[in-house]
Amino acid sequence: YVADSAGVLDVPYLGAVDGLVGLRDRFDHVVVAFGAVDRRTMVRRAQLLNWLEETGAPLKHLVSPRAVVSKGVSLGAGCVIAHGAVLSVDATVGAFSIVNTNAAIGH
User: What is the strand order of the sheet 104-105 is part of?
Assistant: First the structure.
């Protein structure tokens, strides 16, 4: 993972977020796996998403195998669909949205 500092997760740390561009050849896609709970983290998440788009990072959505995604659902780049989420027929989930555990979205 990349982050502002090491020790956040118990997986190999690859360096600071700004170094992600230099690591692009090591990845097929990038997924932003943190939400925002206050104004500071909302601003930081928005800055990171803008920066990734500007650098042309290959953004991918991430869908739990335990989510239900119905026929015709449209998923935007970088969205995260958590365990137990249910997306109804023809629902649209915008770029970088997070559909959390057991949430439901209708059409």
Answer: 68-69, 86-87, 104-105
Would you put residue 87 in left (φ > 0), alpha (ψ -120 to 50) or beta?
A: beta
User: Which helix (H) or strand (E) is 80 found in, with range?
Assistant: strand 80-81
Check if the beta carbon of residue 23 is closer than 8 Å to that of residue 15. yes
Q: How far apart are CA 7 and CA 10, in angstroms?
A: 7
Listed in sequence order, the residues at least 6 apart from 70 whose beta carbon sits closer than 8 Å to its beta carbon are 86, 87, 88, 89, 90, 91
Q: pLDDT by residue (tens digit) across 16-62?
A: 877 777 887 787 888 887 777 788 888 888 888 888 888 888 888 89
pTM: 0.78
Rounded to an integer, what distance in angstroms lies between the CA atom of residue 94 and that of residue 98? 9
